[in-house]
Amino acid sequence: MSTVYLATADQLLRTVLPGTRGTWPRACAWLLRLELEAALDGFWGRVRPEIATATHAQRPKQLMLPAYTGPDIARRVSYVWWALSRAGHHHYYELGITVAELLRLRDELVLLLDLLQKCAVPTMMGNSSTVSPP
Amino acid sequence: MSDETLLFHDLTARLRSLGVPQPVADLVLAAYQGDQGLDAVLAGGELTQPGQGTRESPGVEGDVWLEAVRVEGFRGVGPQATLALRPSAGLTLVIGRNGSGKSSFAEAAELVLTDDSMRWAQRPVVFREGWRNLHHDGDSEITVKLRLDGQAPVTLRRRWGKDATDPSDAEVTTFVGRQRQPAGQVPEWLGRAGAYRPFLSARDLERVITAKPAELYDALAPILGLTPLSAADTRLQRRRKERDDRGKALRESFTLLRAELGEVDDDRARQALAALGRQAARADLAALTALVDGTAAAADHPTESAARRLLDGDLPDLDRALTALHEAEAAAARLAGSDSAAAARTAVLLRQALDLHSVEGDQPCPVCRAGWLDAGWREGAEAEVARLGEVAAEARTAHNRVSVAHGDASHLLRTVRRELGAAVAALETTMPQPAERLREALAALPVLASLPGTAGEAEAVRVSWLPVVAAYTDLVESATRWLVRRQDAWREPGASLRRWLDAAAVVRAGADGLARLVAARTALGAATNAIRAERLAAFVGQSARIWLRLRQESNVELHQMRMEGTNTQRRVKFPVSVDGVEANALAVMSQGELHALGLAVFLPRACAQASPYRFVVVDDPVQSMDPAKVDGLAEVLGEIAETRQVVVFTHDDRLPEAVRRLGLEATVWEVGRRERSVVELRRANDPADRYLADAYALAAAKQLPEDARYPVVAGFCRSALEAASMDRYRARRYATGESYESVEKALAQAVKVQQRLTLALLDDPDRGGDLYSHLNQAYGRWATDTVKAVAAGTHGAHDATPLPQLVRRTGDLLAKLR
Fold first, then answer.
1. DSSP 3-state assignment of B646?
2. How big is the CA angle at B339 (ends B337 and B341), to the nearest 5 degrees?
3. Does residue B584 lie in a domain region?
4. Domain membership flag for residue B804
5. Mutation target vs B (from A63, A68, A128; most B CBs, 10 A cutoff)
6. Contacts of A95 in chain B (CB under 8 A)
7. Are residues B651 and B695 both part of a single domain?
8. pTM > 0.80: yes or no
9. Range of B143's domain?
10. Interior CA angle at B147 toward B144 and B149, to 5°?
11. Residues of A with CB below 8 A from B754's CB?
12. pLDDT tens digits along B790-811
């Protein structure tokens, strides 16, 4: 259940829109991140509505995520969110994100959207990310 | 079972499945076992069954982990600085700005372990001189401490005097436990550091690009562990070459021998040429041996034997026979004057007269009628008869003597004629002139009458005998010369032929062996290819997986990396495709991609199963990588760190950041360098600290409902306590030399936070009941309360302790645990 963000990002990825030269990769990353956040809000709205509406700050919500989705999805969400944020911000020492990397992140994002969608409302299980032997 | 025994069994199975005949397979296996066994099997002996040999090397049983690197006065490090590592699987990042001295630790460890002073020596002068720290006046020293599972730790020390300029000019000391080892005696596994190179520096990675295909092959070959196979091949090859060379030498001398024999005008040479034929391999050795031994029937054999008989035999003493005949004739002639015939007749007459007188008595002589036959006459007549008898006997004797002498001479003459005639006939083609002269002389020799009596015969023979003797002497001389010449002509070629025959006999005897050796090498090659392909497949899979992670957005796909060829043709191939188009990796890849390819190729080698090293040191792997590749690298390193000790030196914080974002466990050391090369190490971002930071952050997020946050925060607190407990337990256990597996097994069995704390504090999983009283006594009641609240909180209980207090107390307890 994707939103307009993903659709717009896909449009930027596939076609040349006038006036977007040079800026579209960052815009695209930003849109993808918004899509992820929307999906997370949707997830929280489903499993714990108070969390969805409580704050816009992402870190506390992401810290909560493993307790509800399990460590694997949470880690992947965290990574994609961070990678998109990194691409969406301006860095003096880093070049803009490439189309191939955007496509990879987009594909991972689409997988995560699906996983979040399917994630069952858990019975409270606490933080399951125990320290595993390295 | 050691690697080599495994490989031996693998090889045996391969040879069987390839359908290699048993004698050939035995040869291959013997070659695998060593020189002695191979020679024995080649000589027809039995293959030694494995296990009886001495090949089982007492290889390292435990795994080797890196525990500490202490550096003083080397590269960027001035006063002594120590990088302490957890000697177990896990990821350690050592971060520091360029010039902070972090790479000095990597280089120091590499230098000590691989003894790569050669590589240093090959560097440009500026580098060579730069190995000493500029700000350090005293001796330089590197100490690397290694932990071996289940064995005493090993410490390697390399020390240079303050005046040393050459890095290889070091005093090297090895300690096993506290025991200093005699100079030059180092553990066997140390030698394998070169093969597996648990070090990856930018220089190593560049080898993918800069090394020649054969060098790259050699760099990768050790991971396959096929060295014993190539050693076996070398052994087979050496023996094949020996035989080949002998065969070649035989063919060369064959040509020379034919040329030599062709120049000799000798029948034996012609026969030898015929027996040699056109091909050395098909020469008739039996016929040639007969020729050399002189037992062959040569075409000039009649001439030779005639000549030899001529030389061996003497000319009959015809002279003496003639003289004897002459004397006998003379004696007979002397008697002839006394008319012995008349004497005989007179004797007959007298005997008849005596008979008459005996019968008739005295009477007048009936013959002369004047005399008177009486007793007186009788006496005289009887005496006369006796005398006349003697005369007759003498005459008979003389006659007989002449007869005998005549017979002797005749016989001798006949013999001479026959013998010399035969010699002349045999020799007249070889030496016509003297033979002809002898023939003429013989023809002039008169024939003796069949009965003696012809006077002067002997003299006539004697006269014509002299030319015979002269001609005979000539012929003997000629025959002698001819024989000597014949002998001389054959001496050299005969000797050459004998030498060649001896060599040919050796080659013929070794022909079977040569065929077996060739077959054995083919079989070994086929088996090696199969084993290599199988072993490489696993390795290539690893490489491909790593590449897949590292390439991220690259449009270059790495296909099956291949190791091909042998000897000078050996090489490594990286077939790739760019957007589906086939290409050569080295041609189409960017610098960053090649760097990643280097990691993909060399990381699996450093982590090869056969390597005794459980650690890998990677120096600055993120150079020229874009962000996505750094993320991929972090994933790869994290994956390897699950079973290996991975120590990564890096100059920027992209890698630590990626590691954190990917939720990977890692220990991070920050390296800083003050003035005058004072290097400091500070532990940053401990996992327990990270959990605690997360707990603080979430505890402060009051917008979120507390009942939702409480178990999560408690979970972070629990993770922090568990991480610190495990660190403490590991550190203590490793210090006692316990193996990695047994430590991790104990930790894995402790699943609850209380159980892990019990291990950390009481060191005994069965003393769980004592935990709370121990906490009370050691730290106070709050400690027990905190542990209880954390354990309960993760399961949803959230009324015991307020969140901020729970986190704060967890922090306090963490401080105690460290």
1. strand
2. 150
3. no
4. yes
5. A63
6. 626
7. no
8. no
9. 60-190+614-685
10. 160
11. none
12. 988 888 776 678 889 999 999 9
